[in-house]
């Protein structure tokens, strides 16, 4: 059976609008579509493919575990899950790990845990969750409600209650809302979907301080920033502010679905036996692949490499912008970069992304004004240069209409 893009519209629920091409093969930072056209991948499956496509360490782990044990359900422990949890604990502030299958599920667990913790320790009145406008935390009903984009959460009837939003990087607006009835504060330590916005040092430290003052838990959603993306293993480590709960997914599996929630022993104890769970969460196959991804990324060489590659991206983007003057700034950190289009191209970030595909480059947007790059953390310099050459052609084609 020949598969075409047209069939997508026939058999799929219409919630996505994928581009006209269908990728069929990937290797490193190269992808090929059905017609054999080759692309350089600066999208990385939205910050998921942290080691590119079909990295030998991940393929090896998948094959090895695939021939051993795929699934046993959480009525029994399994070796890969325990090994991965131990490594996450060793490398972070956390003492305990809960495994899920996605970012939304990791966040769902974080929010449910925070509510339990507050209820057990302080009583029912401490249920308020504060999050931030333009934040993104996933698409379950709880997480999308906590996310700061009404367009994603409206239209589904009554929402989970006691969730309020402040403006990101606006400590004053946040300080006005938080109180002793605040149960938890959830934020991305660098907003991804919301336009690639870094927190100010003052904001992030101030939020931590006010959480401590009001006995509220601070939850960092590191689904997009985690596992090396910003040049630190987790973004909080580069900010010098430690959360109480952290969620991680996307790059954690390097392309295999997995998510995790990390926290301390004191907080974790409120998720008692039977209070939460997942059939597939922590399955051996996902954990084996994630362990290989984690081992490969969590080295000084790879993390330093992210910073060096960021510098090269910024240098080449500066050269393109000097010629074409299309971006007002390049935001973000490490290999989570947001190119903000200037006044002349307002609302047209998507045009650059579409033009890039034409030129053989996969890129992303973050809202209507930001072109986003989230390539492999180990993308070779030659691929960065080739991808940027293609991007320059894409920019030229948009500029020249
Ligand atoms: C992608 C993302 C999520 C959702 O992850 P899924 O795996 O799609 O459920 C949550 N939070 C952030 C910050 C994300 O970037």
Give a structural overview.
This protein has a seven-stranded mixed β-sheet, sandwiched between helices. A four-stranded mixed β-sheet has the order 1-2-3-13. Strands 11-12-15-14 form a four-stranded antiparallel β-sheet. The longest helix has 25 residues, at 300-324. The protein contains 15 helices and 15 strands. It is an alpha/beta fold and 401 residues long. Residues 102-104, 107, 136-138, 188, 192-193, 221, 223-224, 249-250 line the site of pyridoxal-5'-phosphate.
Please outline what is shown here.
With 401 residues, the protein is of the alpha/beta class. It has 15 helices and 15 strands. A seven-stranded mixed beta sheet has the order 4-10-9-8-7-5-6, sandwiched between helices.
Mean pLDDT: 98
Shape category: globular
Low-confidence stretches: none
Order of strands in the sheet with most strands: 4-10-9-8-7-5-6
Number of helices: 15
**Span between termini:** 39 Å
> What proportion of the residues is helical, as a percent range?
40-55%
Query: Cα-atom Rg, whole angstroms?
Result: 21 Å
- Total strands: the figure is 15
Heterogens: pyridoxal-5'-phosphate
> Major beta sheet, specifics?
7 strands, mixed
Please provide the ordered H/E string of secondary-structure elements. Answer: HEEEHHHEHEHHEHEHEHEEHHHEEHEEEH
Percent strand equals 15-25%
| Class from secondary-structure proportions | alpha/beta
């Amino acid at each position: 059976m020949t598969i075409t893009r047209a069939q997508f519209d026939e058999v799929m629920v219409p919630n996505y609008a994928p581009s006209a091409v269908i990728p069929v093969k990937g290797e490193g930072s190269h992808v090929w579509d059905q017609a054999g056209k080759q692309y350089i991948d600066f999208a990385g499956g939205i910050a998921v493919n942290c080691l590119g496509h079909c990295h030998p360490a991940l393929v090896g782990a998948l094959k090895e575990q695939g021939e051993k044990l795929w699934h046993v359900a959480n009525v029994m422990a399994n070796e890969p899950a325990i090994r991965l949890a131990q490594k996450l604990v060793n490398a972070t502030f956390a003492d305990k790990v809960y495994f899920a299958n996605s970012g939304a599920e990791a966040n769902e667990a974080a929010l449910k845990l925070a509510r339990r913790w507050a209820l057990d320790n302080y009583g029912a009145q401490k249920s308020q969750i504060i999050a931030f406008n333009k934040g993104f935390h996933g698409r379950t009903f709880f997480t999308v409600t906590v996310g700061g984009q009404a367009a994603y959460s409206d239209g589904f009837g009554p929402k989970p209650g006691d969730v309020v939003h402040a403006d990101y990087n606006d400590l004053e607006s946040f300080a006005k809302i938080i109180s002793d009835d605040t149960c938890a504060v959830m934020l991305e330590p660098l907003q991804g979907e919301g336009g690639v916005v870094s927190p100010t040092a003052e904001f992030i430290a101030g939020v931590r301080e006010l959480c401590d003052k009001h006995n509220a838990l601070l939850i960092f959603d590191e689904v997009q920033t985690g596992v090396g993306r910003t040049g630190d293993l987790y973004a909080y480590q580069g900010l010098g502010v430690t959360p109480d709960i952290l969620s991680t997914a996307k790059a954690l599996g390097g392309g295999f679905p997995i998510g995790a929630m990390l926290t301390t022993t004191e907080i974790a104890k409120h998720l008692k036996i039977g209070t939460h769970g997942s059939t597939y969460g922590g399955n051996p196959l996902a954990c084996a692949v994630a362990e290989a991804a984690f081992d490969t990324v969590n080295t000084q060489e790879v993390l330093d490499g992210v910073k060096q590659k960021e510098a090269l991206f910024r240098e080449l983007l500066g050269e393109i912008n000097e010629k074409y003057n299309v971006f007002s700034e390049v935001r973000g950190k490490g290999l989570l970069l947001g190119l903000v289009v200037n006044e002349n191209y307002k609302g047209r970030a998507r045009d650059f992304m579409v033009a890039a595909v034409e030129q053989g480059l996969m890129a992303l947007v973050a809202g209507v004004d930001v072109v986003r790059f989230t390539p492999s953390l180990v993308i070779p310099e030659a691929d960065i240069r080739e991808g940027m050459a293609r991007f320059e052609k894409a920019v030229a084609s948009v500029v020249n209409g």
